[in-house]
Design a protein that fits this description.
With 217 residues, the chain is of the alpha+beta class. The protein has five helices and ten strands, in the order αββββαβαβαββββα. 35% of the residues lie in helices and 20% in strands. The strands form two sheets. It has an eight-stranded mixed beta sheet. It has a two-stranded antiparallel ribbon with strand order 7-8.
């Protein structure tokens, strides 16, 4: 059995060693609990749970609520004929994805990036497939008729407005949100990224949320 003085001596030695390591540039691991209130625009503990909806993806396959579970999902609502906000935001999402996977490669199988159309007249699955191809092969798309689109936008509070136009006229604008929504693997609205959007800041917040959700207690 160690004497009390022996225990004290070991403790002092460990403390001095830690100071010396810090002096020479070595950082000892420090465990820090993340507080939910420290994470910008993070909804906790109350998060909105998504309910059922029916759309199709760019391959004309069903896109429903189960597609937004079991993975972290970044959702952006726009339209393929958008002249400015959409291509800029899609590029931002691509950069955000690159940063996330560079920092944590294992998240590739647990994270998805989804472009949801709010232009049912022009954004057919075939057209969306071509559009998404300009941003790489990592994006999913979701579209449908007006009722199908609104089955998702309404419950998430996503506003959009299609400019009046004559039947058959394909040259019109759509006003829509520039925000990006983060959906948890449980199908809950976890966070909203508001413009202006910065890829590194988005990746950093996502990392904070992941760490918070994985920490014990």
């Amino acid at each position: 059995m160690q004497s009390k003085s022996g225990v004290i001596w070991i403790s002092i030695t460990a403390l001095v060693a830690g100071i010396n390591l810090s002096f020479f540039g070595f950082q000892l691991p420090i465990s820090k609990q993340i507080d939910a209130t420290e994470i910008e625009s993070f909804f906790w503990p109350k998060q909105k749970k998504l309910t059922g909806f029916e759309m199709v993806n760019q391959y004309n396959e069903p896109f429903t609520l189960p597609n937004l579970t079991d993975k972290w999902s970044f959702l952006f609502f726009g339209y393929t004929h958008c002249p400015d906000i959409c291509p800029i935001t899609m590029q931002t999402l691509r950069q955000t994805r690159s940063i996330i996977l560079e920092n944590t490669p294992s998240l590739e199988a647990h994270t998805q990036f989804i472009f949801v159309s709010v232009d049912p007249e022009r954004d057919t699955p075939e057209h969306m497939k071509i559009y998404l191809g300009f941003f790489g092969d990592a994006f999913l798309g979701a579209t449908g008729n007006k009722q199908q689109i609104e089955s998702l936008t309404t419950q998430l509070g996503i506003p959009y407005s299609i400019a009046p136009h004559e039947p058959g006229d394909k040259n019109y604008l759509v006003e829509h949100s520039g925000s990006i929504l983060l959906i948890s693997p449980q199908g809950m609205l976890a966070s909203i990224y508001q413009p202006p959007l910065d890829p590194k800041a988005m990746a950093d917040r996502f990392d904070q949320i992941i760490q918070f959700m994985e920490q014990p207690g």
